[in-house]
């Protein structure tokens, strides 16, 4: 079977250049999608301009259609926008390494302090948490509770001392007790104000932390970006931790924070549990934003949290999971590389009959693509969500009639059944690599 596929492949290689029209249409979609995702307007403008320059006249890669080529460039530019590489925490030569957590109230500093300590502890460090939020009632208690959950000591001097003095004393205590990492949880305010900044600068100047990590709530979109810009100007930050990405399906702040501050996003927090933290990978976030799913992160998380056997089970489940619009899009793009669906299906024993009447031409495919791109990521992942009013929005957004959307969704339900059989026949190849 593989040989046959390779045969079709070699006969179907396409050559050519992207026309300006191809690029223009694709970029319009991209621009709308980014703006809808609450990405900073200036960032979008520059982004689209960069892509246009790269895409027009670009040699089409042998295995990609112009549409895919644009998607590929967009993906690469998204990655670039978010900093290309993951950015690791740095450690100081002299122990202890001190990290200072800063950010507005409610951004997730205290929770993230514990999450970070938990993962550092897993990697063999001996962290000490420091309670420097002396204003918010129960803030100290909160840190003690989360510290207790990960079994990491918490240094406190109650709420009668100045944060800077607490921080200094904590570092001495870490020295004495062999803690090689100190994470300082500071107080936030609802808005940026001079008092808070003054206090943070005082701590910074007295203890000279290895890194100042700004915690921002991704759900606040552009506000998150403004906050980051402000903190960076006033006290200087070394990295950003985005929290509540589980609630932010749009990813706008992730895209703009880096571009606006020029400081790396180091971690992403994706839930309230103390294990819900992961290293921020620009390329994975880009795929997530493009709605192509994020198998790698899921599997990585799974294998960290549970043993390898269970991870394999998880992977299997993931692959078997309900077929979504994202899967459909991905399958469709795979199919486009090869030619018509009919051609391919006819090569698979037993598939001829079911597939005969499914003739989809390229125009139809682009139409379908535009509809899927007009869905929210949630809708793509969960087709059952799509009710009549959502259908209308999708039709308007993609420039199609509601009848088209209806027809497509019906077709989708049919293909869903078919694709399941298809995946079954290609078993072992998995969701990502049907044809390659
Ligand atoms: P702080 O004021 O900056 O210290 O913020 P907290 O650590 O007290 O967090 C404020 C709220 O946000 C708490 O209810 C946390 O459970 C919640 N939170 C923090 N990080 C995340 C996250 O990544 N996802 C979700 N869903 N909630 C989070
Ligand atoms: Mg707090």
TrEMBL record:
InterPro entries: AAA+_ATPase, P-loop_NTPase, Signal_recog_part_SRP54_M_sf, Signal_recog_particl_SRP54_hlx, Signal_recog_particle_SRP54_M, SRP, SRP54, SRP54_GTPase_dom. Involved in targeting and insertion of nascent membrane proteins into the cytoplasmic membrane. Binds to the hydrophobic signal sequence of the ribosome-nascent chain (RNC) as it emerges from the ribosomes. The SRP-RNC complex is then targeted to the cytoplasmic membrane where it interacts with the SRP receptor FtsY. The lineage of its organism: Bacteria, Bacillati, Bacillota, Clostridia, Lachnospirales. Residues 1-82 form the Signal recognition particle SRP54 helical bundle domain. The keyword Zinc does not apply. GO terms for molecular function: 7S RNA binding; GTP binding; GTPase activity. Its main location: cytoplasm. GTP binds at residues 103-110, 185-189, 243-246. One of its GO terms (biological process) is SRP-dependent cotranslational protein targeting to membrane. Composed of three domains: the N-terminal N domain, which is responsible for interactions with the ribosome, the central G domain, which binds GTP, and the C-terminal M domain, which binds the RNA and the signal sequence of the RNC. Residues 95-296 form the AAA+ ATPase domain. This is Signal recognition particle protein. It catalyses: GTP + H2O = GDP + phosphate + H(+). One of its GO terms (cellular component) is signal recognition particle. Residues 96-291 form the SRP54-type proteins GTP-binding domain. Its EC number is 3.6.5.4. Keywords: Cytoplasm, GTP-binding, Hydrolase, Nucleotide-binding, Ribonucleoprotein, RNA-binding, Signal recognition particle. It is found in: Cytoplasm. It is an enzyme of class 3 (hydrolase). It holds the Pfam family SRP_SPB. It comes from Vallitalea guaymasensis. Belongs to the GTP-binding SRP family. SRP54 subfamily. It comes from the Bacteria. Part of the signal recognition particle protein translocation system, which is composed of SRP and FtsY.
């Amino acid at each position: 079977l593989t040989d046959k596929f390779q045969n079709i492949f070699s006969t179907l290689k396409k050559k050519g250049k992207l026309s300006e029209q191809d690029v223009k249409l694709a970029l319009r979609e991209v621009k709308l999608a980014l703006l809808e995702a609450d990405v900073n307007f200036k960032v979008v403008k520059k982004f689209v301009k960069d892509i246009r320059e790269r895409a027009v006249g670009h040699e089409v890669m042998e295995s990609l259609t112009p549409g895919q080529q644009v998607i590929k460039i967009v993906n690469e530019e998204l990655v670039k926008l978010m900093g290309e590489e993951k950015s690791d925490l740095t450690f100081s030569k002299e122990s202890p390494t001190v990290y200072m957590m800063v950010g507005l109230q409610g951004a997730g500093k205290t929770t993230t302090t514990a999450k970070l300590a938990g993962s550092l502890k897993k990697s063999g460090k001996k962290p000490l948490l420091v309670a420097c939020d002396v204003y918010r009632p129960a803030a100290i208690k909160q840190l003690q509770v989360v510290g207790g959950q990960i079994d990491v000591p918490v240094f406190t001097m109650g709420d009668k001392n100045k944060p800077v003095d607490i921080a200094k004393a904590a570092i001495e205590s870490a020295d004495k007790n062999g803690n090689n990492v100190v994470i300082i949880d500071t107080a936030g305010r609802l808005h940026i104000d001079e008092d808070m900044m003054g206090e943070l600068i005082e701590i910074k100047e007295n203890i000279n932390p290895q890194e100042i990590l700004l915690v921002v709530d991704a759900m606040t979109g552009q506000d998150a970006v403004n906050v980051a810009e402000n903190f960076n100007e006033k006290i200087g930050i070394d990295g950003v931790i985005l929290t509540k990405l589980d609630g932010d399906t749009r990813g706008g702040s992730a895209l703009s924070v880096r571009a606006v501050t020029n400081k790396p996003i180091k971690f992403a927090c994706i839930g309230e549990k103390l294990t819900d933290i992961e290293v921020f990978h620009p390329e994975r976030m880009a795929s997530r934003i493009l709605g192509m799913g994020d198998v790698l992160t899921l599997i990585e998380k799974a294998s960290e949290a549970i043993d390898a056997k269970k991870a394999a089970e998880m992977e299997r489940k993931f692959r078997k999971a309900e077929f979504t619009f994202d899967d459909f899009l991905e399958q469709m793009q795979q199919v486009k590389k090869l030619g018509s669906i009919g051609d391919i299906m006819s090569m698979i024993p037993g598939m001829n009959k079911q597939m005969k009447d499914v003739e989809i031409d390229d125009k139809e495919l682009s139409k379908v693509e535009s509809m899927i791109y007009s869905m929210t990521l949630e809708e793509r992942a969960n087709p059952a969500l799509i009710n009549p009013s959502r259908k209308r929005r999708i039709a308007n957004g993609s420039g199609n009639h509601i009848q088209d959307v209806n027809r497509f969704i019906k077709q989708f339900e049919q293909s869903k059944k078919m694709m399941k059989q298809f995946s079954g026949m290609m078993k072992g190849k998995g969701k990502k690599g049907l044809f390659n």
